[in-house]
Amino acid sequence: MADKALIQALVEAWGPPGHEHEVRALIEGYVRDLADEVRVDSSGNLICRMGSGGKKIMIAAHMDEIGMVVNTLDKPGFARFTMTGGLILVSLIGNRVRFANGTIGTIGMEGSALIPTKLPTLAELFIDFSENGNDSGSVQVGDAAALTRNFTTRGDRLIAKSMDDRIGCAVAIEAMRALKGKNLPNELYFVFTTQEEVGIRGARVAANGIAPDYGIALDVTATGDTPKNNSMAIRLGGGAAIKVLDSGHIVPPAIKNLMISRAEAAGIPYQLEILTGGSTDAAAIQTALSGIPSGVISIPCRYVHTTSETVDINDVQACIDLLVALLAQPFEA
Ligand code: CO
Ligand code: ZN
């Protein structure tokens, strides 16, 4: 079953958009002995090649997580911030953030001593970094932060901040482990990408540089399995989600059908994903250069973009198995 220690290390690492260095160094440690070649491009993407010859396939998982940047300082010990990625404001009050220097901040809402009487706007939220009432200096304009929370489990459920998309990174690393030492029929480029949460920026640069024949993104998708939520036919424990479309990308039917047939041939549980809000690195790969057919293996995840993103370990394993089944055989779509 999927390596929980690997997942814990990845989700607890710090990496708001544009500041993926800590995650990249961590992943580099895991993949150095698995890949034939490892390099970092000008956008900070970590590119790991396995095998040579055959179709070039780029597999993308993003290293960054949603975060914020301080844009003004308020009273001593308080900072205002702008978002880097889709923070859910109502989930922020009372949550904690971590800055690069290790400072832990608390998010609060102005105007109310106890119970907020309305939903917050971004302008009403602040980060409290006060230490003793005489505060100066530990947080500056321009500093980046990310939400912080420990990894935990509840049965088969794995709960953490930044499952989006460190769980995709874990799936990629596990697939690399499974493929190591095999005679590979494809030339694989596992790319751990930057700045997905602010507009899928790193993946486009990497795709232009690699010029793959096909792309596969690994990312989380939402579910429709919580009370009074029938918004989509995806549930935790239902298997790997094979994307049909999202708001930025219609998967070419040949790619989707290849994924389905490989899942069925290997007995891997799967479900079909239609996501009406959000997109993935595959949308950038699909439209890079003169167009690169791309698909997505999605990990079902509840409470996306909160500090309690929740996945099921059986789904994680199904995603690893499906990716390996796709990559271990000639890729013809
Ligand atoms: Co996201
Ligand atoms: Zn993501």
CATH architecture of the largest domain: 3-Layer(aba) Sandwich
Number of helices: 7
- Gross morphology: globular
Helical content band:
10-25%
Give the count of structural domains. 2
Task: Please report the total strand number as a whole number.
Answer: 18
Spell the H/E element sequence.
HHEEEEEEEEEEEHEHEEEHEHEEH
Write the CATH homologous superfamily of the largest domain: Zn peptidases
Average of per-residue pLDDT values: 96
How is the biggest beta sheet arranged? 9 strands, mixed
Q: What small molecules accompany the polymer chains?
A: cobalt (II) ion, zinc ion
Using the CA coordinates, give the radius of gyration: 20 Å
N-to-C span: 29 Å
Helical/strand content category: alpha+beta
- Quickly name the level 1 CATH class of the largest domain: Alpha Beta
Low-pLDDT runs of 5+ residues are none
Q: What's the CATH topology name of the largest domain?
A: Aminopeptidase
Proportion of beta-strand residues: 25-35%
Structure in a nutshell:
With 333 residues, this protein is α+β, with helices and mostly antiparallel strands.
